Amino acid sequence: MTHEHASPNGVRPGSMGEHALQEVSGSRERADRFYREQMSDRLNTQMSEFISRMEMMFVGTADGGGECDVTFRAGPAGFVRVLDQKTVAWPEYRGNGVLASAGNMSENPHVGLLFMDFVNDLVGLHVNGASSLMSPDEFRARHPEQIVENDIPGRRPERWVVVEIHEAYIHCSKHVPRMVPVPRTRQWGTDDQKKKGGDAFGVAAERGLAPRQRSAARGGSPSAG
Questions:
Q1: What does DSSP say about strands 123-134 and 87-92: parallel, antiparallel, or unpaired?
Q2: In CATH, what number does 40-171 get?
Q3: Which stretches does the entry tag as region Disordered (predicted)?
Q4: Of 141, 131, 150, 138, which is closest to residue 189 (Cα–Cα)?
Q5: Domain edges within the chain
Q6: How many CA atoms lie within 13 A of 70 on its CB side?
Q7: How many other C-beta atoms can be found within 10 angstroms of the C-beta atom of residue 81?
Q8: Could you tell me which residue, 201 or 21, shows the higher pLDDT?
Q9: Bridge partners of 168?
Q10: At what angle do helices 28-38 and 16-25 cross, to 10 degrees?
Q11: Between the CA atoms of 145, 146, 150 and 151, what dihedral angle is there, to the nearest 10 degrees?
C-alpha cells in the first residue's frame, strides 16, 4: 500500500493499482475513510509501545526486478528498536548465508513490516518504508543507547536494518486467531540443524543429500550422521 504518503495536501495514500480497483469495486469511499482515520506517516505512542513488546514480525522485500520474498524475524520483546517516530531498526545475526532479504534491500530499499499480536490485542500493525543496512560499528556510533550487550547470548549482529517509516496503519483484528504462549527453551541464533528444523520439508532427502554436521559447514568433511 506504499508509494504515496498520507498528506494534508489532498494527495491520496496508496498505489495507482489499488485506486483503480477501488473505483471498479465501489470501495473508494471506504478506502478514503481508512486513509483518513487510520493511516499515518509516523508512529504514535500506542504504535511505539506495541512494537516494543513484539517478539516477532514478518518482513516483505523485493529485488530490483520486483521479485518478492517474505521472511520471519523473532527475538526477545523489543528486538525491533523504535529509534524515533519515523525510524525503527533491528539486528541481523548469522543465518543460512543466503541473505535473501538483505540482498533485496541492497537493490530495492522498499520494505513492508507486519507485527501481529496473537495473544492479547489480536491486532496487527503495518509499517512500510525505506530500508538501509548498517554495520554494527556504524549503528553503535549513531545509536549507542540502543546497544544491549549479550542481547542474544553468544551472538553479535552482522548488520543492522534501519527503516525510515513512510506508512504505519492497523491490521484489523477480524479473523486474527488467538494463540496461547507456552513455555519453551529458545535457541536464539543457533547453528544446530536439528534445533533449526533440519530438513523438515525433505528437500535434501529428495535430492539424496545427507545431512551435514556443523563441522562440515566450517570446512570439514560431510557426514551422513
A1: unpaired
A2: 2.30.110.10
A3: 1-29, 183-225
A4: 150
A5: 1-39, 40-171, 190-219
A6: 5
A7: 20
A8: 21
A9: 40, 127
A10: 130
A11: 150
Dihedral angle of Cα 31, 83, 146, 134, to the nearest 10 degrees: 80
- Do 34 and 172 touch, CB atoms closer than 8 A? no
Tens digits of residue pLDDT in 173-185:
888 999 998 887 7
In this prediction the pTM is 0.83
Please name the residue that has the C-alpha cell 517516530.
85
* Adjacency order of strands within the sheet including 123-134: 68-74, 56-62, 110-117, 123-134, 159-171, 87-92, 81-84
Give residues with Cβ within 8 angstroms of 39, minimum separation 6. Answer: 6, 13, 167, 168, 169
